[in-house]
Amino acid sequence: MLGTLFSSEEKYGPRLTMSLCHCSSEDGDHPARALRHQVQNSTGWQSDKGCVYPQELGFAFEGEVELHFIRVLSHERKIASRIEVFIAEATKEEIENGMIKPYHSSNFRRLGYVCFVTTADNAFGARELKTINIRQKCVYVKLLISRPYSSDYNLFHQVGIVALTSHGTIRRTYQGAPTRRICLIGETVEVPLDEMLPPRLGNPQSVQPQDDIGLEIDQVTARRIAEIVLLKERAVAAEDYDLANALKSCLLSLERVGKQLYYLEKEKATAVKEEDYASAKNLKRQIDNLREEAYRIPTSVPEKAESCKNSNRLCEPSSGKEPPLTSELMTAELRGGEQMPSLHAATPLPALLDESPVGGRDLYMIKNSDNLMRFGKQENLTANVDGNLISEFAEGKEEWERSINRVIRELSSRQDQASVLQGEALTEARNSENVFGTYCCACLFGKKGSLREAAIRAIISPVGFTALCTHSRMVMEALLSYMALPSRGLCDPVAGVVFACCEAIQAIIKDNIPDLPPVSALISHIQRLLPALVIRLGDNNSRIREMAESVLMSFSDLALEPVVSSLLVDPGKDKKRPVSPKVHVARMNMLSSLVDRYGINGDESISLEVGNVLSSAVLNCLQHSNGEVREAASRLFAKALLIAPTRSACYMEALKPAQQNLVEQQMEALKATAPRVMTQDELVSSATLNSSAVLDENEMRPAGRNCQSNSEGRGAHIAARKCQFCGQFDENFSEAALDIHFIRACPMLCPCPLCDQVMEIATLQQHLTTECENRQLVRECPICREAVRVEDINKHVALNKCIKAVPTHSVCPLCHARFETGLSGWVAHLASPPGCPNNPRKYDGSGPQVR
């Protein structure tokens, strides 16, 4: 049945005859020879217990082949994080001689890698099938298999491949191939790979505890025993006898403790009935302690595991989480290659509070799985009752590190726990660990945005900064370097982290942190953050935009030149994708503010000179495809013409007629809105081309600054007590009261349905698809540009009933009403009577709707 080709495989081409010729290790119960059989109940090859990674599998063909695809079916529990693919090609000499080198003497070329996704969130109910696009000539293929994901049901840190196939055509055969062949892959084929499902077992709820113990065991423990019984049966079905043996001893312990709990529960019920609450409290504590001890799988691993752990082999420590993977569950690709669909992908991960369907093919599922035994170093990561941190972060730490850890815990939710770093995140954090400590780095470089925010705020807090300074003199330098990292700090997708970064930079600039080094010594570090701050000027979140502008303006008081230089450079020049038009509009407006404050003659900054501003920034933006960008650029050009007409005139002549008309319109608008300044400008305009014109321009600069200072002073009181989103003004608005207004009442805001971050309703769709921590759960519809759940996107697009997105109109994500785009349209829809019918908040900002 070697040549069997199923209908689902026809698109990949005929199967190739492929033999296994090298295997770095194998489990005695699941040897490499198991890859010969592709039948319904195949469990395939598994690496040896406690093996060294990466594991290597080598394959040989009958001769030189045109290899199109390799399809790999991963084990449902022993899942490799990724597989690298190498090929060996026949040389000219080998082709001429008709004899190829042995596998171990061949030269291999790396093609790329594919990543596998852990199915822990799906209760190990699926096997992932990867289809790898090769399209290369070769004689050998080598797979390097990386370490597995940590799993409560992979005690010995193994990886497994259930089956694999190769597809392509044979080009030429060679006689007497010298490579030893272990087995023929797919010698027996009964079912296609996408039908080789994990063992099907009954519903866990149908399994009942044994009759002879069920009557004297409390209900919670009885359910636990039922789950362990099912777990043991599934371990036996999967021929994982080491796990079955461990579960057997766990059952005996549960039966013994269950009887004690049964009588303690009765005593507690009696105490509560008699209102003896002190005794009830003591009994509850005893019950909780007993359950915590009994519900943990015993730490006595079978002898086979112990011998493996104590051997001289290098065992990689497992961890609670793996680094983020770039491969999606539904596709597989080699870098530079073509994507191919996976026919046997696991169920998409559900969002919080979603109804999660329970599959019938799941393997091991136990509640409170955090208490299950880990293999290797994970056994040491037990809970520390005193500090409520796992021992990796709490044991053997100095006082300064314990102090910063306490501050982080106080600023974050007590339920949030950082995980031990792995992979790229661990490499990134190495330089910072000596300054911030292990736990602080685990928060800064971890996956939880709330912990990243808490760590930044802890570092700049008086207690945290003082504790760190007793250990290192490079605290602020290290923090600013962290903020400049790609995807970290100011580039973090979580808004709270960006807020914390901006507040930290503002505190440094204004010297609000006790014992802070001179700001002049940190200017070079802050300069590295300016490009990211410029990008944030066009962020969808208005609060981020305002904070970025505030930081840039504050820093311009210390070092104007780097701020102007960063604004003159096109932020999208070196990026693969163009930046948002909002960024360019914000650049023009920011430059305009700096011109008002410092003039445009180059005295305060060499870059803030008419020629530099117009040639480096304004002229490029005047050619932008977005109308708002062109309008902002023409407004700045008009201001330059009014302030410095002599030096700006030559640039005006170089514009196209349409651009000149736009600039002239902006000049008329500026003259109408600033008549007093215009009087002085007319004097400048009438001056002859000599040094007196320059003198007039210089005399005008202080007047502009004073005018702005006065207007800022008049509006400061109102701005501090006015909601920046809906415009509501209240004399009682303090900073804390405004935060409450944002969270509960502002009709322009709502919590993100995936991450609960409070967002502007106008930018909710962009947030869901580009910034949200759980954005992998949704996809952007190409028609309406709205976020749709991954599992519904194909059906949504096929129906073609959504409202097509157009640049001139916006669509409310709550009620799908359509109105003219822009801030006025959103305010009219959300914050004006009668308000959005589906908005849970009243249009006047007075609070939630009463339904």
From TrEMBL:
Keywords: Repeat. It comes from the Eukaryota. The keyword Mitochondrion does not apply. HEAT repeats lie at residues 529-567. InterPro entries: ARM-like, ARM-type_fold, CEP104-like, CEP104_N, CEP104_Znf, Galactose-bd-like_sf, HEAT_type_2, TOG. Pfam families: CEP104-like_TOG, CEP104_N, CEP104_ZnF. Gene3D superfamilies: Leucine-rich Repeat Variant (1.25.10.10). The keyword Repeat applies. GO terms for cellular component: cilium. This is TOG domain-containing protein. It comes from Trypanosoma cruzi Dm28c. Residues 425-676 form the TOG domain.
